[in-house]
Design a protein that fits this description.
Order of helices and strands: HEEHHEE
Oligomer: single chain
Largest sheet: 4 strands, antiparallel
Number of helices: 3
Number of domains: 1
Strand order of the largest sheet: 2-1-4-3
Strand content: 25-35%
Shape: elongated
Distance between the termini: 23 Å
Radius of gyration: 13 Å
Length: about 90
């Protein structure tokens, strides 16, 4: 799935979590020891566009290989990078 779809699932979960007065979820994204957490796709998209060159950012945002709590390998012109996505609670 695309990262945008994963954020939609988290948004739906968070709506229910709010009603049930329980912890909400975020998505943690990163490489090895460097990571950030995000509440929304727009936050995530802005971060990716600012942190990575256009070629890599486009591949991250458009990849359909994202899964919850999994890793995606991005092969770009200068090499290969592995990124992970995990669900974490607030």
């Amino acid at each position: 799935m695309k990262m945008k779809d994963m954020f939609k699932k988290i948004e739906t979960y968070n709506e229910i979590a709010e009603i049930m007065l329980t912890q909400k979820a975020k998505i943690m994204f990163g490489e090895k020891w460097c990571y950030e957490t995000f509440n929304s796709y727009n936050e995530f998209k802005k971060y990716v566009r600012n942190e990575y060159i256009k070629e890599v950012a486009d591949m991250i945002l458009n990849s359909e290989d994202w899964e919850i709590d999994d890793e995606v390998e991005i092969v770009w012109s200068d090499g290969t990078s592995k990124f992970f996505s995990e669900i974490v609670s607030n």
